[in-house]
Design goal:
The structure holds two protein chains of two kinds. By secondary structure, chain A is an alpha+beta fold. In chain A, strands 1-2 form a two-stranded antiparallel sheet. Chain A is about 55% helix and about 15% strand. Chain A is globular and about 55 Å long. By secondary structure, chain B is mainly alpha-helical. Chain B is about 80% helix and about 0% strand. In chain B, α4 (about 60-85) packs antiparallel against α5 and α7 (about 135-145) runs antiparallel to α8 (about 150-160).
Chain lengths: ~110, ~190
């Protein structure tokens, strides 16, 4: 909560990307990240948009990246794997807590129809 | 069985104009998606989007300030010269400005000079086959719209065809177009 107050908050898409990276664990590179987001959120995402969010998150030091193996399927280009840093994990937990706090006391939004 | 190849031109465009630090990974991801069954149309759309999104993502205050400076300098020049030399000077200056912006995307320094020279000389090659140095611009007016042709002809009649001034205009325009690129480099924020 304090970190959010200090301006270290996440946009909704950045939060989605970070949660997806956590979910994919060791296999978090561009293709599965975009596929997983499309599958779970039901919305189309562009590869460029995903990388733009990843670059912002990396600049904030919430994620880090390392180059992986190059494959023929990728035209010989290396994969870039992303992992959430401890600082990033803290921000995700804080964001969750803030959202839960805001959700509490709004029974009209819990399940069912609005 | 021949392997399905991603659209070559889209890849080339992304390679040349994609400014994301992860450009290589993006190209690899697009190729992987494509070989898993995405269409060429999807590939083109994603490649163009990646170029636009990366440019937008990397834009910062100093880059915008530099662009404003470039356009400001060019506008001042155009406004100053317009009453004397007509709209031909203005258009030549804008052509130079465009070439200045384009060269930023070329990685080799000797190519920068080459593009400037080609831009200047394309105009003069055009003018050499026409009766007036302003004729290529009259053709351009004709392409843009018939309504502008009369204004162009008036401009040709009133102007003295000062080749030196037009050359100067294109070079000043090119420098103005290139100046934002210099600031991009100094800040190191948009390009590596």
């Amino acid at each position: 909560v304090e970190e959010m107050a200090r301006g270290q908050s996440l946009s909704s898409f950045e939060l989605i990307v970070m949660l997806t990276i956590i979910r994919l664990d060791q296999n978090a590179y561009g293709v599965p990240i975009s596929e997983e987001i499309e599958r779970r959120s039901g919305r189309k995402v562009s590869i460029g948009g995903v990388y733009a969010a990843l670059e912002r998150l990396e600049a904030k030091r919430y994620v880090r990246s390392e180059l992986g193996e190059a494959t023929a399927e990728r035209g010989g280009r290396a994969k870039k794997y992303f992992t959430v840093t401890p600082n990033g994990m803290r921000v995700v937990r804080n964001t969750r807590q803030v959202l839960l706090n805001l959700w509490n006391g709004l029974p009209g939004l819990e399940g069912g129809k609005a | 069985v021949k392997e399905k190849q991603p659209p070559k031109w889209a890849t080339l465009l992304l390679k040349r104009f994609g400014s994301s630090p992860n450009n290589d990974a993006i190209i690899g991801d697009l190729a992987e998606h494509f070989r898993r069954g995405r269409t060429a149309r999807w590939y083109w759309k994603e490649a163009l989007l990646a170029i636009v999104v990366a440019a937008y993502n990397g834009t910062n205050v100093s880059a915008l300030r530099a662009a404003a400076f470039g356009w400001g300098a060019l506008s001042t020049l155009c406004i100053a010269l317009f009453p004397i030399f007509g709209r031909c000077t203005v258009l030549v200056g804008i052509a130079g400005f465009g070439s200045g912006l384009v060269v930023r995307y070329l990685s080799r320094r000797w190519l920068h000079l080459l593009v400037f020279i080609v831009t200047v000389h394309l105009y003069w090659i055009g003018s050499s086959v026409a009766s007036s140095p302003y004729s290529p611009l009259v053709w351009l007016y004709q392409l843009i719209g018939f309504g502008l042709v009369r204004g162009a002809l008036v401009s040709v009649q009133l102007s003295i065809g000062n080749l030196v001034v037009l050359s100067l205009a294109i070079w000043v325009g090119a420098v103005c177009g290139y100046s934002p690129s210099i600031v991009f480099n100094e800040s190191g924020s948009l390009y590596e």
